[in-house]
Design a protein that fits this description.
The structure is a single chain. By secondary structure, the protein is mainly alpha-helical.
């Protein structure tokens, strides 16, 4: 029983390693065909997670008296959602998801 478990673990480890090697080789092949190299990756700017955009200094907020009020007439459903004569193209889900 111990020998079967040991074989199973060994085969599983070999399969995982083979999968990772194939993944690395495929990724390298795709990057090579797209012209991405290690030297081109080092020239990219560094991304810092703490940077936040600064608010624009020249944006002015209108005074409280200049704010327009909401319209008093509520549009009917026909003006908000007009009917269209064209039907959308049917999309078929061939994968069943």
């Amino acid at each position: 029983m111990k020998q079967m478990r040991s074989r199973f673990r060994l085969i599983t480890l070999l399969l995982v390693c083979a999968f990772l090697v194939v993944l690395v080789l495929c990724t390298g092949s795709v990057l090579k065909t797209n012209g991405v190299t290690i030297s081109s990756l080092s020239s990219l700017p560094a991304v810092s997670g703490t940077a936040s955009p600064e608010p624009a200094a020249d944006v002015e907020t209108p005074p409280a008296g200049d704010v327009p009020s909401a319209p008093s007439v509520i549009p009917s459903d026909e003006t908000v959602f007009p009917e269209t004569d064209s039907t959308p193209n049917p999309e078929y889900n061939i994968f069943g998801l």
